[in-house]
Amino acid sequence: MAEIQKSWRDGALRLSTLPLLLLMGLFFVIPLIMTALLSFQGTQYYRLVWTWDLKVWTDVFSQVHYWTIMWRTLMMALVCTVLCTILAIPIAYGMLHRLSRWSDHITLLMVFAFLTDAVLKTFGWVLFLDRSGVLNGTLEAIGFPPAVVNVLFTPNATMIGMVYNLLPYTIFTIALSMARIDGDLVLAARDAGASRLRAFIEVTLPLAKPGIWAGAVLVFVLSLGVFLEPKVMGGGTSPLAAELIRQSFETRVNWPLGAALTLVLIVIGAAALTVAGAVALWQARRVAND
User: Fold this and answer.
1) Which is nearest to 234 in space by CA: 159, 142, 154?
2) What's the predicted TM-score (pTM) here?
3) Are strands 42-44 and 47-49 parallel, antiparallel or unpaired?
4) Who has the most CB within 10 Å: 53, 247, 281, 286?
């Protein structure tokens, strides 16, 4: 009887995962296979030609321009991830402890800002950072030289937009992780003589590590695919991989090239996530052994 019940539960579990598997196959696996097949085709007179050759991949691996953009995309994503994590940790901690009375209100305001259209927020930063915009106008009014801040249409402006748009992901994940920490552990560290800073570093941060890792991975993956910030705030002077892929599909009407670059970006992201997962697993095993 117990074996029948166990078999029934296993069958019900497999059946419950069927819709998820169908969705994954329909919206991820099949498009990925189609993209891979498309990368082996060619174009002629702005039309797709089914040639089945390696010309596109030869161009991708032989032209330094593509790999320069891929490397720049990877570095920008890493810097954005580090900045978002560094900024999110004190913000999340402050929301839960120092500003706990207004935590719900702050979260609500962040959600409203997060749900605001990204195009509007990005162009808002353009108006703010422009040479004749709000920031320079305010600085000039208090005595600084005209247009003292000239960051717009540079990689720094792109980074500002990326951090601003992706920061809520790390704040929410880290805040959720910190909220699950038993407060008695921190109090025990304080009773043992640890200062607030030492208790935060040696108790809160290690216990919040899952949320920190999750937020960092999420921001990194999303950073690889940004295209609005480099185009609008960066002025297109230092394009990233997503903008190159968009141009390949839309402007140059070279779908095989866009498909190949998409696969390269996916592989880079998957490799980075694999390394991050391996590091996290190694740390977890080291802690378990200790």
Assistant:
1) 154
2) 0.85
3) antiparallel
4) 247
